[in-house]
Design brief:
- With 430 residues, the chain is α+β, with helices and mostly antiparallel strands.
- It has 2 domains: 228 residues, no CATH class; 147 residues, no CATH class.
- Helices cover 41% and strands 19% of the residues.
- The chain is built from 14 helices and 12 strands.
- A hairpin with a 2-residue loop joins strand 2 and strand 3.
- It is globular and about 75 Å long.
Length: 430
């Protein structure tokens, strides 16, 4: 029998089963709880983006490292410069000039002064950007003056053309995002190229690119994509699936009223001051995320200590409080009923197939017990199919009393679950 050796990479799979009561934690554009069809039936869904946004926030809090995914880097840096005594317009122009000095194709200025694309930067990178501009304040001055003169000239030309045609200017793209100010982008870019000119400029393009390429532990975990700038791209170590209910769901409509307190107290009128409808569902969710530990260490340039901190934060994010939609009227603050961690030495394995056939509700037991039983059986089927030699270790912690024989050792508490998982990873890494 031939044995095939796969490239060694250590993955941490994290699975959760969580019962969520009447809620609308993640809504679509129509205000309904998100859903998906799986196994031929409608399921409750929470998007991967929704889950990653909140887990990233938790990781940042635990690690003490802020990271911003934003178009407003220019606006934040401008505010810092004005705090240092800069004129607001001059500060904004200097910041825009520096960022466009990177000469990344497609990167421009929106009509609200922000960038036209999202940048994902550590807080420290924004501070360094501000310091760099402030250090070169006198160097920027003549370029800012000329840029403002060119912008004024273009504004007058544009106003004259608008008067002649009487045509309103578009201020947003078709998708509702701020439209790019192509005139400002072109003018600022022209002067940005002068400051980065290799002969007469004072700020090398590579210095600016270095700022945009800065990464910290959070970016090493969740990755970064900036089109047309390969040096800024970081492949994510964490992958997250859309959470799906283990069973079929129906959207429930709540017709509500809001009483007008003063009219009600005066007794002049009775009834509601407002009538409306909201949509909710209740579901037992299956959640799956995986962390490529080998990739994480590579993204951190071999910093094993920081990688271990990220892994621990990744585990703690599973039980952290989630900010959810309609939270004040639903308070769905439940804990996961089950956490299952498997440390694998070849590839990640998502056990979502356990619920391709929807779990039926029982007369007295709801969905939780049946969902746990189904997941345990499916894990056992995977062990028979693949064997267990690719699992360095696995463990689970649960609120349930039932035995889950295929989900590894049972931890008595969440803290023990984390400690055991970290010890398994340390052993697997050698």
């Amino acid at each position: 029998m031939t044995t095939i050796s796969l490239p060694r990479a250590i993955h941490l799979d994290l699975i959760q089963i969580q019962s969520t009561p009447y809620a609308s934690s993640n809504r679509d554009r129509n205000g309904s709880p998100k859903s998906a069809v799986y196994g031929g039936v409608l399921r409750g869904r929470e998007s991967a983006q929704h889950q990653k946004f909140h887990s990233r926030g938790t990781m940042q809090n635990i690690l003490g490292e802020k990271t911003f995914r934003t178009r407003a880097t220019t606006l934040a840096a401008t505010r810092h410069l004005t705090d240092r005594g800069w004129d607001k317009d001059e500060a904004l122009t200097a910041v825009q000039m520096l960022i466009l000095g990177s000469q990344i194709k497609g990167l421009g200025i929106a009509d609200n002064g922000a960038t036209n694309v999202l940048l994902f930067l550590p807080e420290t990178a924004i501070s360094e950007l501000v310091d760099l501009i402030d250090q070169h304040r006198d160097d920027f001055a003549p370029y800012i003056t000329q840029a403002h003169a060119d912008l004024d000239k273009e504004a007058k030309k544009k106003a004259k053309a608008k008067t002649a045609t009487n045509a309103p200017a578009a201020d947003t793209d078709d998708d509702g995002e701020p439209a790019e100010d192509t005139n400002r982008t072109a003018i600022i870019t022209t002067h940005a190229k002068k400051i980065t000119d290799t002969k007469n400029g004072f700020l090398p393009k590579e210095r600016i690119l270095g700022l945009l390429r800065t990464r910290n532990a959070v970016i090493a975990a969740y990755g970064r994509m900036l089109a047309n700038e390969p040096g800024s791209i970081v492949e994510a170590s964490i992958q997250t699936a859309h959470a799906l209910s283990t069973h079929a769901i129906t959207t429930q409509i709540d017709s509500f009223t809001a009483v007008d307190d003063i009219l009600n107290e005066l007794g002049d009128e009775s009834g509601a001051g407002h009538l409306g409808e909201q949509r909710y569902n209740s579901a037992t969710f299956y959640r799956y995320s995986t962390l490529n530990i080998t990739k994480l260490i590579g993204n951190l340039d071999g910093d094993h200590a920081t990688a271990r901190d990220v892994i621990e934060a990744f585990l703690h994010a599973a039980t952290a409080h989630r900010n959810v939609g309609k939270v004040s009227g639903t308070a769905p603050h439940t804990l996961p009923h089950l956490l299952y961690a498997a440390v694998r030495t070849d590839r990640p394995v998502n056990l979502a197939g356990a619920f391709e056939e929807p779990v039926p509700a029982t007369a007295t037991g709801g969905y939780l017990t049946a969902s746990l039983t189904r997941l345990d059986a499916h894990a056992g089927a995977h062990h028979r199919f693949l064997g267990t030699n690719r699992i360095a270790g696995h463990t689970h912690v649960t609120l349930a009393d039932q035995d889950l024989t295929h989900l590894g050792d049972r931890a008595d508490s969440f803290d023990e679950f984390v400690t055991t998982t970290l010890a398994t990873i340390d052993k697997a890494r050698g």
